[in-house]
Design goal:
Elements (H helix, E strand, L loop, with lengths): L1 H12 L9 E5 L16 E6 L6 E5 L7 E5 L8 E6 L8 E11 L5 E10 L2 E8 L4 E8 L2 E9 L7 E9 L2 E6 L2 E7 L8 E5 L5 E11 L2
Antiparallel strand pairs: 1-15, 2-5, 3-4, 5-14, 6-11, 6-15, 7-8, 7-14, 8-9, 9-10, 11-12, 12-13
Amino acid sequence: MAVLLALVAWLCAGGIILPAAAQTLHKVLASPLVEEGSEPDGCTPAISGFGGPSAWQVRVERLLLDGKALVEITREADPNRFPLCIADLPVAKNAEVELSFVAREGRVARAAGIVVRFSDPQDFYAVEADALVDRVRFVRILNGERREIAGRIAPLKSGLAHTLRIRAVDENFAVSLDGKVLFEAHDSGIAVPGRFGVWSRADSLTAFGDLFITIFD
């Protein structure tokens, strides 16, 4: 311990800035204190792709923490419509984000996803889990063009709670489902800090829990 303290003092005295310890933030998207049917107070609705504006409401979901969840209610069936709800803060490049969800219904999709490095609805990364096709995808939306970077078949079940996680550090990304790493990917298309949020697709009726964001910047 004495050696470690001496090293820290030496580094500080030499003008070298040590990185701050990683901090985990709990972004409440659906507060248990508000009534069912309330609008989200932890994120701002947006839309990527085609279709009309997204609309989100707080609903009861007893399979998730605190018994409340955020649900996209318009459910337009266009497969290229991606409703988003984006938190104003934090803004960061390198982070690990965790989201619990329950995919309930949907004929086109039963999707839930995490948005990272969001600049605007035309530029961001997302990881999407779709219980209708048992697949998890990592995609990049750049200048409005959607490209799948990596993906894998995964054991997803409608009506059950799952936990999705993405770790983004510079050009390296790791995606996990229910505590197990599914795949890793590399991409340099979006290298700037951005915001975080949740992603749905088409007519998905999915209950979204809160975001847990660990910042590494």
